[in-house]
Write a structure and sequence with these properties.
The radius of gyration is 16 Å and the shape is globular. It has ten helices and no strands. The protein has a domain of 110 residues. By secondary structure, it is mainly α.
């Protein structure tokens, strides 16, 4: 009988995730103890067959946006942070039915304009919850680098990913079914 983590290999998970999963006794333990919100969002997004911008996608987008919002604490106040906060607020409104796709796309464009590469990581939350998982950690690294506080990058990234894992677990107490 193979280890439960063999199911992750069929999903083309990264080597780091596969190695960590092989050290976990079972899937329930892995989900309960994982400190990588990006991995968890990726896994939730993989089997999600809902269409982008669909009502079915909204809970996952809201979860990813909440994770990205937690990373904002690492950003200095200013245009980039302001536009990222606006984007996340518009995303939340879209998830609640109070904003349109056009509203989100406009907020995305403004965020892209204020800080092209790393804002794109945050903006990707609306388009794909799977890609947004990677944006959560990227925006933390960008924010720390932007502040010139390079020594805290690893600690901030770990703290943000751990907080993201807690957010994901609060909304998805158990992971998705692995085929």
């Amino acid at each position: 009988m193979s280890h439960w983590s063999a199911a992750l290999a069929r999903l083309d998970t990264c080597d780091e995730t596969a190695k960590w999963a092989r050290a976990q006794p079972d899937y329930a333990t892995a989900w309960a103890t994982c400190r990588r919100g990006d991995w968890m969002l990726w896994l939730l997004g993989r089997p999600d067959m809902s269409a982008p911008w669909s009502d079915e996608r909204k809970p996952l987008v809201a979860c990813a946006a909440a994770c990205a919002a937690g990373a904002l604490e690492f950003m200095l106040a200013g245009l980039t942070r302001d536009s990222a906060e606006i984007l996340l607020s518009v995303l939340q409104a879209w998830c609640e039915g109070a904003a349109t796709r056009a509203d989100v796309e406009q907020a995305q464009a403004e965020t892209y304009a204020s800080y092209t590469y790393y804002a794109a990581a945050t903006a990707s939350v609306a388009e794909s919850a799977t890609l947004a998982a990677f944006g959560v950690s990227d925006i933390v690294v960008a924010a720390i680098c932007y502040q010139g506080n390079y020594g805290d990058i690893d600690r901030a990234r770990a703290r943000s990913l751990g907080a993201s894992a807690d957010i994901v677990r609060s909304r998805y107490p158990t992971g998705p079914v692995l085929a």
